[in-house]
Amino acid sequence: MRIAFSGTHRVGKTTLVEELSDLLPSYTTVEEPYLELEEEGYEFASPPSVEDFEAQLARSIDHLSDTDTGPEVLFDRCPVDFIGYLQAHEDAESFDLDSWLPRVRTALQSLDLIVWVGIEQPDRIALSASEDEDFRLAVDEQLRALLLDDPHALGVEVLVVEGSPRARAKQVLQHVSSHKP
């Protein structure tokens, strides 16, 4: 299965991907676009600008479109994440979602599943004083609507996971094993 992990920052996506990469050794792992772009020398604004999120969105689309990754892949983030960030951004009105939707839909068709990791109550991850909690909550709300309500007919199956990293991994493994041919 080609599986993407979605959620706002500091909810445990990467931890879950790392846990699953150990449990599913035949799977390839694709790191999140932010880290790749940063390693390549891309300089992000602080906080990231609309252009920064669009660069990550484009990279995420490229990841999903890359057929060389094979049929068993764990993607840390997917295009929907960046749409959520862009819609929650203070300059959201400068983001033209309609111009991106055809590419996003096409890329998402290569996925079998999106695993959504939302903010839990109580929150499992402590934030530093410098982190914008309101923005994080706004992104979480946007992603919840985009993935669970599917207002843009993205048409991808979504698995919501909760609990400890081990419990989340178990939920994903159960889903994967129930969908084997």
* CATH topology-level fold name: Rossmann fold
What is the H level of CATH, i.e. the homologous superfamily?
P-loop containing nucleotide triphosphate hydrolases
- SS elements, strand count: 5
Per CATH, the class reads Alpha Beta
The number of helical segments is: 7
Instruction: Strand order, main sheet: write it out.
Output: 2-3-1-4-5
The average pLDDT is 94
Model regions low in confidence, pLDDT < 50 over at least 5 residues: none
Strand content: 5-15%
Radius of gyration: 16 Å
Outline type: globular
CATH architecture: 3-Layer(aba) Sandwich
SSE order in H/E notation? EHEHHEHHEHEH
Separation of termini?
Answer: 10 Å
How many domains would you count in the coordinates? Answer: 1
Which structural class fits the helix and strand makeup? alpha/beta
What percent of the residues sit in helical stretches (DSSP H or I)?
40-55%
Let me know the largest β-sheet. Answer: 5 strands, parallel
Protein name: NadR/Ttd14 AAA domain-containing protein
InterPro entries: NadR/Ttd14_AAA_dom (IPR038727), P-loop_NTPase (IPR027417)
Pfam families: AAA_28 (PF13521)
Organism: Myxococcus stipitatus (strain DSM 14675 / JCM 12634 / Mx s8)
Protein described:
- By secondary structure, this protein is an alpha/beta fold.
- The protein has one domain (2-178): P-loop containing nucleotide triphosphate hydrolases (Rossmann fold), CATH 3.40.50.
- Helices cover 48% and strands 12% of the residues.
- It has helices spanning 13-23, 33-39, 50-65, 79-88, 97-108, 133-149, 165-178, and strands spanning 2-6, 28-30, 73-76, 113-117, 158-161.
- Strands 2-3-1-4-5 form a 5-stranded parallel beta sheet, sandwiched between helices.
- β4 (113-117), α6 (133-149) and β5 (158-161) form a beta-alpha-beta unit.
- α3 (50-65) packs antiparallel against α4 (79-88) and α4 packs across α6 (133-149).
